[in-house]
């Protein structure tokens, strides 16, 4: 059975999406990095059996990621300083953007 490019792309995007759900900053970045690196390395595969094996391994890894996200959310810890800082910057940027838009509406 041939694996289509669409199937691989969908699997890649799903793995990235699921990896984003980790509540732990370190686990989240590690999972994202591993998914990207693994798929980047898999780009060079040409043999159909190797591709099929790699896709099956990725599907198994996706299931592991899903399970670990659930377990990680059961025991979620306080956010790290770097995460709090990023959230603060994001909300301040949104506030600035909204105030600029309100200023445009008033003129």
Topology of this structure?
Blueprint (H helix, E strand, L loop, with lengths): L4 H15 L5 H18 L5 H27 L6 H26 L1
Helix pairs in contact: 1-2, 1-3
Structure in words:
The chain has 107 residues and is mainly α. The chain folds into 2 domains: 1-76; 78-107. Helices cover 80% and strands 0% of the residues. It is built from 4 helices and no strands. Helix 1 (5-19) runs antiparallel to helix 2 (25-42) and helix 1 (5-19) packs parallel to helix 3. It is elongated. The model has no long low-confidence stretch (mean pLDDT 86).
Strand content: under 5%
**SSE order in H/E notation?**
HHHH
Count of all domains: 2
SS-based class: mainly alpha
Which spans of ≥5 residues are poorly predicted at pLDDT below 50?
Answer: none
- Main β-sheet, in a few words? none
Overall shape: it is elongated
**What is the strand tally?**
0
Helix content: over 70%
Mean pLDDT: 86
Terminal CA distance: 62 Å
Radius of gyration: 19 Å
Number of helices: 4
InterPro entries: Complex1_LYR_dom (IPR008011), Complex1_LYR_LYRM4 (IPR045297), ISC_assembly_LYR (IPR051522)
GO biological process, one term: iron-sulfur cluster assembly
Family: Belongs to the complex I LYR family.
Domain Complex 1 LYR protein: 7-63
Short summary:
The chain is mainly α. The protein has helices at residues 5-19, 25-42, 48-74, 81-106.
């Amino acid at each position: 059975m041939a694996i289509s490019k669409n199937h691989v792309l969908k699997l890649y995007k799903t793995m990235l999406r699921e990896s984003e759900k980790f509540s732990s900053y370190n686990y989240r970045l590690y999972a994202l990095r591993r998914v990207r690196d693994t798929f980047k390395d898999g780009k060079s595969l040409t043999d159909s059996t190797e591709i099929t094996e790699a896709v099956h391994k990725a599907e198994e890894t996706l299931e592991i990621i899903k399970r670990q996200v659930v377990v990680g959310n059961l025991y979620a810890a306080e956010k790290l300083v770097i995460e709090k800082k990023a959230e603060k910057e994001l909300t301040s940027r949104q506030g600035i953007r909204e105030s600029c838009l309100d200023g445009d509406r008033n003129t």
